[in-house]
Amino acid sequence: xxxxxxxxxxxxxxxxxxxxxxxxxxxxxxxxxxxxxxxxxxxxxxxxxxxxxxxxxxxxxxxxxxxxxxxxxxxxxxxxxxxxxxxxxxxxxxxxxxxxxxxxxxxxxxxxxxxxxxxxxxxxxxxxxxxxxxxxxxxxxxxxxxxxxxxxxxxxxxxxxxxxxxxxxxxxxxxxxxxxxxxxxxxxxxxxxxxxxxxxxxxxxxxxxxxxxxxxxxxxxxxxxxxxxxxxxxxxxxxxxxxxxxxxxxxxxxxxxxxxxxxxxxxxxxxxxxxxxxxxxxxxxxxxxxxxxxxxxxxxxxxxxxxxxxxxxxxxxxxxxxxxxxxxxxxxxxxxxxxxxxxxxxxxxxxxxxxxxxxxxxxxxxxxxxxxxxxxxxxxxxxxxxxxxxxxxxxxxxxxxxxxxxx
Length: 407
What we know:
The chain is mostly beta strands and 407 residues long. 15% of the residues lie in helices and 39% in strands.
């Protein structure tokens, strides 16, 4: 007889206590913070908890449950041919993973490798020779090689027609992935082109295209940003700032030009695509020590407008030793909605909603790093029961608290 059926047959006064019901206990533990130390530390409470938390099926549910709020566990960097692509930690203890916890040797993979971006625990890497894409799952240790479609190979030029792309998983899917490949073609009459690869079928889909302004080039040095149902890339032009969008649902392309009133007059250093309120597309403009946020609104008739958001005075947030020179925005992590600024005093991470600031490095050593946002669930073995007394005491207190909730 199962625990659930026993609970139905027994009177209420004899019902199984919540923490004695494995199904209910699993639902409670599923809501632990999505940090690397959460499951190993909880497994130290007792043998029963350890048995439940060491189940790979629970790990899978835990990752799916927290898929929309993965922590920024570190950064991925392409160092050189010898050291390859490696991991740099960003969290503090006890959640801090060791440097090099994930590593990919690139010797023999090809020539002139560029990391295009990271999302949903997967990295996408472009290999110029032999013109391939690599999709790397560092946790599972899987490396997938994808041949770039011939149409992209024919048009590819690292300066005039670079290739970029993004990798992502569908909501709740931890087994399959899709790759969106983008590029451009033509000289006088330029067009942006895109197609999608599905790992479930193993084939590239149909091509779609849209006109591009003359001499416009997709900026392949910055990764795409997923906002709403669209992927966004910056496009380089001589006269204006525009953004290239790929709609994942409609499989369509569009080009968005920024309104003139959005552009900061004089001395503007950088702009970037971000996630605004509700996951919509937004922008951040940085000029001097001022960062201005904007969001895109669409009314019931489909008319698009731009609304000014928060104005952030960076000089009031950064420490005094970093105000000798204007900060430079060097990256963005979409799931955590944080922007990275390089200053003379090091690299800082700013959360765009809470405006909380954290120093990541006293040097500019993460300039070429890619944010790695992931719900990482390390394997739990019998050795997990050997923990510090204060950690065990903390989880004992949590257990007592949970029991009181249902008493």
